[in-house]
Amino acid sequence: MRSVDEHQRVVAxxxxxxxxxxxxxxxxxxxxxxxxxxxxxxxxxFDNSAMDGYxxxxxxxAEATADRPVKLVVAEDIPAGRTDSLTLQPGTxxxxxxxxxxxxxxxxVVPVEATDGSTETVSIRASVRPGQHVRHAGExxxxxxxxxxxxxxxxxxxxxxxxxxxxxxxxxxxxxRVLVMSTGSELVAPGTPLRPGQIxxxxxxxxxxAVRDAGADVVTSSMSEDDVEAFRAELRKHAxxxxxxxxxxxxxxxAYEVVKDSLADEVEFVKVAMQPGMxxxxxxxxxxxxxxxxxxxxxxxVSFEVFIRAxxxxxxxxxxxxxxxxxxxxxxALTSPPGRRQFRRGVLGAGGEEVTTYGPPxxxxxxxxxxxxxxxxxxxxVAELPAGSPVQVWDLT
Length: 397
Description:
alpha/beta
């Protein structure tokens, strides 16, 4: 059988980055920058008021107190957005709003709370220092400064900065486009009445959610019956629009294994020394990489975690592509099949320092995986672990 490490390398070699593209900033959240962003202008772009109040020459109000206010004629009213150039004459004031451009000659802003709020002759009851309550041009960003760096994940704040700099688009590493296909004549869509022998399809829903959770896009998520021609037609319909195809089911050793029967020339089907998830496959169909996963639900999702999630995130430049691996203390004794790497569902406790296995190890027990917060990774050469042993876990939170 192929080792887990070897199959990880094979799958990682199939998943490659897409060429950088320019996207409008409204669609760039969570994407990774492909090029540095250099500020084309200053922020703020001009001296402006940090407060609603009155632009003044600081020296004119240096003696102002609550008992002896200084009175100044209000010569202008400056709302935010006024674009004409104004000059403040000594001995006068301009009423000014937050963000409005400071008039030439003004050296400070008196908050409206320190005045009587008049629009004709204002009484100022407090002094201000030169520069007080003024946002100076370029004090946040100067032109030519690298403000965002290639490899950075675009956060809401980063997009706000790009917009403030007047940038309508950014060069990014695009999301991977993934086609998810679930196979089996027994499958019906949730919400459809079941007939004898039928089950609700869950793997495509689950894997599509895992793809999105990893940061990629799902081209489509579909089901196919155990019919070779129907499966190949559905696959061909969507594969050219995808960067990666993930199938689930139809890869075991029995009859009616539609994926195996359909793709014997394009996909290398192997047994991987792991539990769950032994039957695996990988290859290229119509120019698109494909990874074929087993059909049992726990096997499918564990296989996604072990083989696909990290290289998928790495291809999009996302930081920390791997799940955190922790060494914690096992609270109970367990056994593991020799020669296979076992991935058991678990629940962390004691502040993340202990782990307890959760549910049976069989690959159809999806209920337990839905409530687990980690996977225990037990090596191929381990048959027994006593309580109190250190064990490696993958943190799924």
